[in-house]
Amino acid sequence: MTSATEALANDIVARAGNAKRFLVAIAGPPGAGKSTLAENLAKVLHAKGESVEVLPMDGFHMDNAVLIEKGLLARKGVPESFDVRAFIDIVKAVRAADQEVLVPVFDRSREIAIASARIVSPDHRFIIVEGLYLLFSEGKWAELEGIFDYTIMLAPPIEVLEERLWQRWRGYNLTEEAASAKVYGNDLPNGRRVLENRRRADTTIDILQD
User: Fold this and answer.
1) Whole-prediction pTM value?
2) According to the 3-state scheme, what is the secondary structure of the chain?
């Protein structure tokens, strides 16, 4: 585990104090490393004796059939392709920490969201929420302002994102043409939109260093 992740965990624990429930948001463009940081941070917090769960925003992708109906399938991942109302409702329910909350998880290999695939228990003190639009300043996403206790923005340079996105889609055995369409037709434009329309974060990280 990186020393930077350890330091981040220490800062989060210090800020949480005696709070029963503490929500951490990790936002950033596609390929920024949000899910990796979320899982690593969860491991460090768990090693410190803390109870922690990860809540991925990707579970709130609209189904492909709905995206086809809306003409958004080729642009899957844009703000309009998520069920933002349901996501906000779930985050508010999780924040209340007064009941068990079942949340969906996205299966990237099948490109579908699986309902009720993860449990957030009232006993989980730290909830790490990760996703593209947690700090997005446009539309209904702006209603998330103030709901998180600690916010992290991952903002690698565009050329780093480009390389990572190529690696991601080639890993799914796409043709070069199909991978290029994903990278340049959707993911990088989405990434620029995330970076250009973000609210201020408590911590901004370009690239997490050892």
Assistant:
1) 0.94
2) CCHHHHHHHHHHHHHHCCCCCEEEEEECCCCCCHHHHHHHHHHHHHHCCCCEEEEEHHHHECCHHHHHHHCCHHHCCCHHHECHHHHHHHHHHHHHCCCCEEEEEEECCCCEEEEEEEEECCCCCEEEEEECCCCECCHHHHHHCCCCCEEEEECCCHHHHHHHHHHHHHCCCCCHHHHHHHHHHHHHHHHHHHHHCECCCCEEECCCCC
